[in-house]
Design goal:
Layout (H helix, E strand, L loop, with lengths): L2 H8 L6 E5 L2 E12 L9 H11 L4 E13 L2 E10 L1 H6 L7 E10 L2 E11 L5 E6 L4 E6 L2 E7 L4 E3 L17 E6 L4 E15 L2 E10 L9 E6 L5 E7 L6 E6 L11
Parallel strand pairs: 10-11
Antiparallel strand pairs: 1-2, 2-3, 2-16, 3-4, 4-5, 5-6, 6-7, 7-8, 8-9, 11-12, 12-13, 13-14, 14-15, 15-16
Length: 262
């Protein structure tokens, strides 16, 4: 899979966001990507040529993701749809650049855990994840066929909901670990926390930056900038593994109202 095709698969992660109700939100955000050929480890001459070509473009727009969600009475719901940019579609006429994700989770003991998650990219097979928090079991499927099942050892959140992990609460002040899934496998990530200022639409905003520490070369480097007051994700940056030397960056274009779940 090329870095372009893997982009929307690795993302669906943050936000132009507007409130549509006391406990609901809409978020539209642009995704840009840059490629550093010097940091890439291509596995073929074709991959190297593609990486070197992309690196000459600098930072370029690759797609748009639109999120709509709600967080009320301990239940979090999210619909996320992504599409490749016009320019990218002229290079890669692949319907897998069309992405649709759905998530429903529950907050227990202060932790968001996904109950149901689905991931559909164009005509590719539907991926699903489901969890029974009471029985502490999870199951993953591809095109309806079970690919993995096992004991639920951690409160696991799906990749689409990860940036919203603390939504409606003050941003975290200490390092933490979290388990997340892309409906293919479960990953463990530790995040360190730093206070920063982020410029959004001409305003300086106090934010908390969450930075992961990848455990293997296949784990993405993830940075998430949360607004301090309500942990709304204002920016998300994801590395697409050492193989590609690519980084995808999402930045909110306008500040949403402070989010308060019921």
């Amino acid at each position: 899979m090329t870095p372009f095709r893997s982009l929307l698969a690795a993302l669906a992660l943050a936000p132009l966001a507007t409130s549509v109700g006391a406990n609901s939100f809409n978020a539209t955000y642009m995704v840009r990507m840059s490629v550093d050929a010097a940091k890439a480890a291509p596995q073929s001459a074709r991959d190297r040529a593609m990486i070197e070509g992309a690196s000459m473009l600098g930072s370029f727009e690759v797609g748009t993701i639109v999120d709509s969600g709600s967080h009320a009475k301990g239940v979090f719901r999210l619909q996320s749809k992504g599409t490749g940019s016009r320019a990218l579609k002229t290079i890669i006429p692949d319907d897998r650049l069309e992405l649709a994700r759905s998530s429903e989770g529950q907050v227990r003991q202060g932790n968001l855990a996904t109950l149901r998650f689905s991931d559909k990219r164009g005509s590719s097979a539907l991926l699903t994840y489901s969890a029974d928090l009471d029985k502490k079991r999870y199951e993953m499927r591809r095109a309806g066929q079970v690919t993995e099942t096992g004991a639920l050892k951690y409160a696991t959140v799906d990749i689409a909901s990860l940036p919203y992990l603390f939504l409606g609460r003050a941003a975290p002040t200490a390092a933490f670990s979290v388990a997340y899934t892309d409906a293919k496998s479960v990953h463990l990530a530790g995040f360190r926390v730093t206070r920063e200022t982020l410029e959004v639409a001409g305003s300086n905003v106090a934010v908390t930056r969450l930075t992961s520490a990848p455990r293997t070369a296949k784990d993405p480097q993830i940075d998430i900038w949360l607004r301090n007051e309500d942990s709304f994700p204002l920016r998300v940056r994801v590395g697409l593994s050492a193989q590609w030397g690519a980084v995808a960056d999402q930045l909110i274009r306008s500040l949403p109202p402070i989010f308060k779940p019921s």
